[in-house]
Automatic annotation (TrEMBL):
GO terms for molecular function: protein kinase activity. This is Protein kinase domain-containing protein. It comes from Decorospora gaudefroyi. Signal peptide: none annotated.
Amino acid sequence: MGRPLFTLIPHNARAWYHLRYRFAVVFFLVALFHQQHMYIVSRWALRAKYSPTNFNIYSGDLQPRFSIPDDQDSQLQDELVANRAAWKVLGKGCEGKVFAYKDLVIKTYTPGRSPFRNCAPDAATATKWPTEIPASLHFGGSSRPVDVSEDASVRTTNATYQGFLPVKTYFMASTTPGDPAEWHLVTPLLKGSNLNALASYLSTSAEASTFRDVDALYRPAFNRFLGSMQALHDAGFCHDDIKTDNIFVQDESHWVVGDLGNVRELLHPYHSSRIWKENGQLGDCRANDVFRTLQSYLKFIQLAVADQDTFNMAFYEGEEPMSRLFWWTLANAQSMSAEKLRERSITDYPDAAPRLEHNSFFRPTRPHTLLSLFSRQSAVRRAVDEALATRMPDKKARWWGMVWLFGVPDSGHCEA
């Protein structure tokens, strides 16, 4: 009488009911454990990604170079703020906007999806600033007027310093009255923009170029760019975000390392984080930079030619100088350096005859996908795009880390 329901259920059915109940409990506990594990490791990975870059660890105290700008900088700041209406928008994203004014580029930073990582020095309040500002001051230096007594070769109008953009000025100001102040970074304007823009121009020009023509014309610039990357690595830092958007074009033979907002020291915790590993990045961030540089260069060539299918097939044949360079680098990626790749690039120059060196590196395998049953060109195109991809998403870590609820983990507070 006390349990009429169970008296009506056969014994076998009751056993199956209890088994399902226990299975549901076990499944719930396992799922909860997995969720908590993913939450913890994802939050740790995000905290590592947004932890500050230590600019003092290898190069001594750089504090004097981060000092408040002088009177000449203040005059430039006043001019820029007074003529804000004349700024031309070049681009915008989740991190801020980019403007052009005369021969200058003004980059503004809006706190939001990507929080500022480094503490600003000499600040009256505990303030963080974009890592790109101290990184640009470190590698590009400050663009100051030189004394007229200096040698003429020093007083050239070269817009870069050893492959990095110099800083004209930096400051905090409101974009519109009443809005919170934002950080501004001002650097010289390079007419060539970046590799994406250059590739777009070449692909639509009246005289169509083959991938061999583009490689022969721009390989010297690529080799010089590797020299800039070697200087960055010798200083004890990695770029961590090399891609076609972030390689700026000064002229036909000179490219510039751009967007230093992700620069980190070699032993930064991000380089061993879950985000880094899940994106298939190399263990040595220097080798990773070098490989991404080559990927970006070859992606530039692919985008610059009208007949991309011919490029894709040549890439997978592994016989052209550019494709041999890629597959050789891939085979030696773990120990690759910018100087080693530069030497190989000079030796295996673009005008060299096509050949396949069976013993020097592994031959690329043909892409075998379901897509190849219908279109061989489409399968090769997709495989090349994957081989040259430089994506570094953190969406998975953001989801498991519940950034949508708790925000990005705080990497530490600044002291006034």
